[in-house]
Amino acid sequence: MNFSSKLLEDAVSEFAKLPGVGQKTALRLVLHLLSKDQEEVSHFGNTMIRLRQEIKHCVVCHNISDHNTCEICTANKRDKELICVVEDTRDVMAVENTSQYFGVYHVLGGLISPMDGVGPSDLYIDSLVQRVATTPVKEVILALSATMEGDTTLFYLYKRLKDFQIPITTIARGIAFGGELEYADEITLGRSIVTRVPYENSLIK
């Protein structure tokens, strides 16, 4: 792609680094910004800078938050003894959109994936075990994507938590194998949460 401006080329190159954004889409986004007045573009840029500089992760569940403790963890109406374990913030949003879950969350920050060099120590697993060990918990729901990495992580978490003698459940397989949780429709995901089953039932005896 030939550019008439080095500034334009550099901007397109930066946008093209975003996931799912190719050069043509990046060019369209940059030209859109150029069509706006300077104040709008400055506001856009400052918003991104503030996001990176000021965003926090909840000290309890590791969800993205504006404060040290997120609004879900501090909400009085949430059931603090019911923990839903998810991969990342996108999955928190997906479950919340179902309006079928009223507990709290624990965000792992990824899935165990030896092929990608991601092991248990790279995720927020120890802090989950610590939560279960030190606070009243009546159930842990493992709501992870139905992928090889998701199943590997499920099994590892089950081994770490089974000795606490609390129910460990997983969402029902309304989610097809290989499916990412964030892309499931709200009705299917909602039913999967409501009809969750004991994780040990899915293990091969």
Explained architecture:
By secondary structure, the chain is α/β, with parallel strands linked by helices. The protein folds into two domains: 6-54, RecR Domain 1 (Helicase, Ruva Protein, domain 3), CATH 1.10.8; 68-202, Dna Topoisomerase Vi A Subunit, Chain: A, domain 2. Helices cover 40% and strands 13% of the residues. The protein contains eight helices and seven strands, in the order αααββαβαβαβαβαβ. Strands 4-3-5-6-7 form a five-stranded mixed β-sheet. A two-stranded antiparallel ribbon has the order 1-2. Helix 5 (89-96) links the parallel strand 3 and strand 4. The protein is elongated, with a radius of gyration of 20 Å.
Write down the overall geometry: elongated
- Number of E strands: 7
Instruction: Report the CATH topology name of the largest domain.
Output: Dna Topoisomerase Vi A Subunit, Chain: A, domain 2
Average pLDDT level:
88
Class of secondary structure makeup: alpha/beta
How widely separated are the two ends? 57 Å
Helix count from the secondary structure assignment? 8
Portion in beta strands: 5-15%
Can you write the helix and strand succession as a string? HHHEEHEHEHEHEHE
Helix content: 40-55%
